[in-house]
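EI: anyone free to look at a 164-residue chain?
SC: sure, send it
EI:
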Amino acid sequence: MTEIQRIDNNTNGEIPGGDKTIFRVSGIANPLEALNNCKAVVRALILHPGLSPDDSDWKKIFPAVYVKFLSALDEDDYNYDDLLYPIDSVVEDFQDADLRQWRWYSSKLNNDGFEIYFEGWCSFRNCWLIHAQNIPYSKMEVYTDKEQNTATPKVLKDATLKRQ
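SC: here you go
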């Protein structure tokens, strides 16, 4: 099964064998919309591997919520928040095989959140996938087999809180 097929079909929290990373989100108003936005971004990144990171077409390809949020940030916001990046940096990281040691495996919708299961190690750096929808870090937990723990990135500076 391809990664896109898993994005579309593995929606019951199927657990990959071997190393895995789980992003858990809870306490948000529109979990289905947020999960679908995450899927749309990863799908877009997979489907446009040759598009340059600084191509303005990414602003048409990514869901509007990402473009709106990331475009509203200024240099101070990016300096304040440890895990937010402009679109070109996000694309560049995704296209870098050394940084992308993960593949989307499955997802699971909950009443007030969702879970995404990644095959391989997906670092905190990839929390932007959720955070760039204006979802605070306090709503997230990340579990990795590699680190064998669960952590909420509470210690990080959060531009979503700075803007409230």
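EI: Residues 37 and 63 are 6 Å apart (CA to CA).
SC: 👍
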